[in-house]
# Entry
Amino acid sequence: MSRMTEPYVREKFGAAVYGLAMGTASLSERVIDAMVILIMFSPDDMPDAWTQDRFRELYERSTSQEPLADEGSLTVTINGMSVDDVQELARSIVDIESHLLRRLGKADGQNPV
# Structure
């Protein structure tokens, strides 16, 4: 069983999305910063099968390259991606956070937008 609670996971995804939207750095740098927040999680920390699968894909795509010198695999991988691939990583982060918020609405008995 995961030690991460769903509210904690949701909070960290919210922080990652906020940085993506409000940051002034390049998209690659903002995605790296967002993933630094999220890298503490494993797919098993996600609350349902859909989120586990999407997070596993996100994690694997963003860390697939071997580190060079002092850079970690996250930085090397994202800096080596095309703009389209980096945009897809950002979109995945937003999609997962949106899904987590919809789950919250359903748990509260609300009709989420």
The CA atoms of residues 10 and 100 lie 6 Å apart. The radius of gyration is 14 Å.
